[in-house]
Queue: 4 jobs
Job 1
Amino acid sequence: MNEKKTVNEWMGRYRAGLERLYGTREQEIKIQYERYSDLLSEFRKYFRTDQARFFSAPGRTEIGGNHTDHNHGHVLAGAVNLDNVAVCSVNDSNMANIISTGYPVISIDLSELQPVKQEQFTSAALIRGIAARMKALGYKTGGFNAVIDGRVPKGSGLSSSASYEVLIGTIFNHLFNDGKIAALEIAMIGQYSENHYFGKPCGLMDQTACSTGGLITIDFNDPACPLVKKVHFDFMSTGYSLVITDTGGNHADLNHEYASLPIEMKMVAQNLGASVLRQVSLEELLESMPGLRSKTGDRALLRAFHFLGDSQRVLRQVGALENKDFSTFLSLVVESGYSSFMYNQNIYPVNNVKEQGLSLGLALSEMVLKGRGAWRVHGGGFAGTIQAFVPDDLLQKYVSTLEHVFGANTSHQMFIREMGAVEVEPVY
């Protein structure tokens, strides 16, 4: 039988599932249909089996609360329609065999679950760490074959690594645990793997947004058990698009910049008798500021000022969305952006002031959108991406302005995806 015809017949059962993830626009459904079909053909060709199941995990966008999670604050985040997709099946071994588009095959022996130093900073470390954590928590794991297509751009601030982690966790969940593991626990398992196996300290916001889906606010007062709340708001009805633009820049030498943010914030907290800034009030900070300047330095105080403002600003953003007050929400996004630039100071690295792609992108955004939309730094900062909410009648002008400076296809138009990490199931 013709292989392409067989694949097309098989994929036809997934139309409803694809619409839940990518919307009903026919052009987008066609793109995703071809993507899934090609992935299935590659899977069958390599692994020689007709047993196949699809999984999808979205990227995420941070909307409010820039660098507030590590000091136990509030954040507002949402899953986006750019995702990582896997087609996979159980095998008869204890090996996880994974082909990621554009990368060599990796095989991980899941009977060996201790960290492997040579795997640090690789996807193999993430997979082994996820399996190890699941075992430690009493869940089942096992061998599987998978082909993965990643469409969450790396270095875009859309959390490609967190999306990958919750994708792998969701595969283990459905293949071996009947889908019984809650989305938040999948997120925490991914975070554990990234911290202890991959070798990167990170908060829980990214994994939680990717795993849960939709628009969520997270209260990190107890980071071991963060409070996650869905925010119900229909962005599609506003006449605005969410645009993420990659302004470029090198992330390779920025680890010390990222590390300085939680270190300086916590230094301020500790000088006020607390462990994190969540435990400090603005009044306490202002009262003690004259004496703190010589102990912490002024930048640390400014960053503490940003934290206290942006964490509370999230609550106001949530309130505005719940009250369907979109104009107030937009003004709060702009406030958050100004606070990040002036106080948090994570827009460009201090040792390379000549390269300021984020600053330039924000200036261009303000020029086009002032009085109509919103713009801010997106994610960690210092290089990379900015976020904008753009009215539809300005979308073409905004994208052409930004891409004129940063290059073609650097702006990504997207929407908030309601579904988190899921198995994409057929309809018979």
Job 2
Amino acid sequence: MITTITAFRMASPLTRDEAKAIFLSTAPTYQSVPGLIRKTYLLSDDGLTAGGVYLWKTRADAEALYTNEWRAFVREKYQTEPSLTYFESPVIVDNEAGEIQSD
């Protein structure tokens, strides 16, 4: 499995409520993305950094999302350039399901 972390620096701080409204507006677009297991939206305490943590089945699945079109969407939505970092995730502890998963 692959975890990606995206982050983008905001020009001005977002409140939690503003961020929640934005995140809820984009969340449905991620519900049917092939290979995406989970996405968690992020907002820093000061409201100046937003982003997401994504858990993917494979790196190819992740790379299929992070296209030039995705970058353009982020730039338009948040007026900033996103950063993107990939991590191998060979073991996942899922306390809600009571499972330890390994690829």
Job 3
Amino acid sequence: MEIKEDTFKAVIKPNSKINEIVGFDKDKKAYLIKIKAMPKDNKANIELVKFLSKVLGKRVKIKSGFKSKEKIIEVCR
């Protein structure tokens, strides 16, 4: 699945077996992303940023939702 937006919403499922973009939730207008790390001590957020940076080939940052499963992600161009 390819992400083309500069800013997008993501729903994170931490504690998964692998890191992957699962799909797109049309109701929430958000990408569904599985992350291996636990949502403790900011580990899932750090792993999410590393994973998306690798997949997209660009630096990304979390704009909002640091303590939520729903996050707003910004791609730095």
Job 4
Amino acid sequence: MAATDILTLRLDPATSKRLARLSKATDRTRSRLAADAIEKYLEEQAWQVDAITEGVRAADKGEVVSQRSVENWVKSWGTPRELKRPR
């Protein structure tokens, strides 16, 4: 078995009951469900942080699009003369 760390956390009673119900319904331990949820959360947060970091780097290099260009592009959506995404 792979090495694991133990984490203790506090849940409000309503959340704890929901977790217990899901555990029973899925035949998975509360610990496994919590670990899966934390892993998914970390993946989502890492994606967001990476995207923000990439955006800041691009802005630092001057690789930006004017707000006016973006507004015009969005206004064109669904029209016969829809504009290409500004770069």
